[in-house]
Each structure stands twice: as C-alpha cells, then as structure tokens.
Amino acid sequence: MRVTTSNSYDAAVANLQKRQQNLQESQMQLTSLKRVTKASDDPTAAARAERALAVEARTSASQRAVDASRSSMELSESVLGSAGELLQQAREALVSAGNASYTDAERRGLAQTLRQLRTELLSLANSPDGAGSFLFAGQGASSPPFIDAVGGVQFQGVSGSAEAGSSEPLPLTFDGQATWLQARTGNGVFETQATTQNGSAWIDGGRVSDPSAVTGDPYSISFSVSGGTTTYTVLRNGNPTALTNVAYQAGQAIEIDGQSVTISGTPANADRFDLVPSSASLSVFDALDRTAAALETPGRNSGQVAQSVAFGLRDVDQSMTRLQAQRSLAGETLNRIDRAGDRLSAQKLSAQTERSAAEDLDMVEAISKFQEQQTGYDAALKSYSSVQRLSLFQYLSV
Fold first, then answer.
1. What is the pLDDT of residues 225-239, one digit of tens each?
2. Phi/psi of residue 261, each to 5°?
3. Does domain 34-185+280-360 have CATH number 1.20.1330.10?
4. What CATH class does 190-278 carry?
5. Within 10 Å of residue 379's Cβ, how many Cβ atoms?
6. In this predicted structure, what is the pLDDT of residue 187?
C-alpha cells in the first residue's frame, strides 16, 4: 500500500486544522466561562441546564408574585393600623360625650368630629394598591369599592380576595365587605336594643355569664310602672318566662339564660329593651353615622344620651376588634409570604447550582487543557514545517 506525499501533507494539514479548532473552542469557553455553549457540546449537560433554567424562570415569576403580595399586605396592614387609630379617637370623643355636664351644642361638636373621622375611614377603605386596583376591593376593581350612598356606605366590589399567580396562593387584596361592613353586632354573642325608651333608663351592652346556657333566642324586657312600683317581665320568643313581674332595681344585673345585662336609670311605663342574637352585619360607617345622629338630636334626657354613648362605644369597640383581627391576618400573611419567599429563594439557588454544574467551566481544568492544546498545536505546527522542507528539490538546493 502506497501513501503518497500529497496524502501525508493533507493528513497533517487536517490534523493542524483540528487542533486549531479545538484551541479556538477552548478559547471561547475561557472567554464565556461556559463549558457548554451549544447543545452539541454536551447534549446531556445541555438538557440538564435547560431544565434548570426553566425551573429558575418559574421561580423568578413566583418571586415577583410574592413581592407583589408582600407590598399589598404591608400597605393593608398600615391602612388598618391607621383605621384603628381613627376609631380610638372616635372612642375618646364618645367618652367625652357621656359627660353629663355637656350641652347639646357641645355634643353636636363631638358629632361633627365623628363625621370627620368617618370620612377619613372611608378614604382609607378606598386606598389604592399602587397597581391600578384597591387594597379592599375583594376580587379586584378598577373603581373605588366603597361608595357613600343615601342609605349609607355600600360595597361595590366582589367579596373575596384576589390572589397572586404563584406556586402558593397569596392574597393581593382584602375582602372589603368583611373588613369594614361585617363586624359582629352587640357583644359578639347577643345585641341589646332600646326598643321603647320614654324614661331615663338605659341598658348596657351585656355580657355572657354562662356560655352553655345561651339559647340564641330573642328576649324582651318590658317595664310596668304602677303605684310607684316598677317591675319588669322577660319574654322569650314572645312567651313568658320565670322572670315575670320582678321588682326592678337600678344598676342590678338581670340574668337571662346565661346572658347578663344591666339596666340603669328610671324606666317609664311600657319601656322595653330587647336582646337579639348577634350577627356579622355591623358597618363601622353606619355605627358612626347612628352615633353622630343621636348626639346631634337636641332635648334628650340623660338616659337617652347615656344609651347613645353606650351603644356607640359598644359598636366602635366591635369595629376595632374586627379591624384588629384583619390586621392580625395581614401580619400572619406577611409571615407566610416570608416563608414562601425563603422557599423560592432556596429553590432558585438549587436550580442555579444545577445549571452551573451542568454548563459552567472548571477554570483550573480549562486553563490546563488550553495550555496542553496550545503546546500540542505548536509542536504539530513545527513538526509539519520541518517535514514540509524535506523535499528533493529543497535538498538539492542546499
């Protein structure tokens, strides 16, 4: 078998070209710091890197959703805190209104204070989230969710809450109706009402003395004044109870099936107070409206004024309790967001590590390999140059 000189030269040139190509690829890897720059470099590693890149992209999207939820919850928590401060101011104004020495004019001034605080609360309830929606819009709205209508403040949004599109359900908004319009009435178990109040008697908010005895039925306490003697009768669902024609003593607690109420002052004949089950229907705006309207009414006796103040304080306290519960929920959500953020950060780091392991360059190994290839290329080039000069004509010309 004969190997021609031309064939030897071609093989040598191909070898040089191959070595030069490998050297260029190593230079490119050193420049990009990537061992795999295209799928053909290492198909298996390229597939691993692609999967890791997809996980990293999904994690980044989830992190953006988590950040949006965190921003919204922080704003909501701040707004609810401000609302609590306004209600505390309303409570202080109501305590002042209970001063027996105050005149009708002074109580009207306090009523104006309550109306101003109510206006500020409505503004807080319509707080924007900075992203085109509103913090308390429920499932989202492009216009303020609360409107001040003739019958009181109404919620125009959709109950519920919007959630961020992430791997974990995280809220972007609060349910405005549940936050501002659905506090528990009364003391949370039952509500006292002054149905007929001609005398100077008034009833407190009541309390539960024995939870196991509470029936959930409505009760009425009716007064009878005859011959200078005042008695009361308690009806349950309109039916007589054992408390019939009981002598009335002002300020003495009346126990009714695990419920305790105190009536003070002097009731008139046919005065009536009711106890009805509590419901989640107390609007903070309606509560302030009712109290302000009562304080603005002139010519009322001390019992009627005391009743308005007592009911106002009760409703403000229940509204504050509801807002504080929602604020606590915002705090719990922020803690959950932090935990979700930590998990996503760990997941992203894992994906980045996997991607790096698949495609990143080992600099020590790469430099060593490059130097080895460079040395081999230089040696091959010198060898080829030496062999190329070994022709008969070059030999004769020496």
1. 998 899 999 999 999
2. -130, 155
3. yes
4. mainly beta
5. 11
6. 95
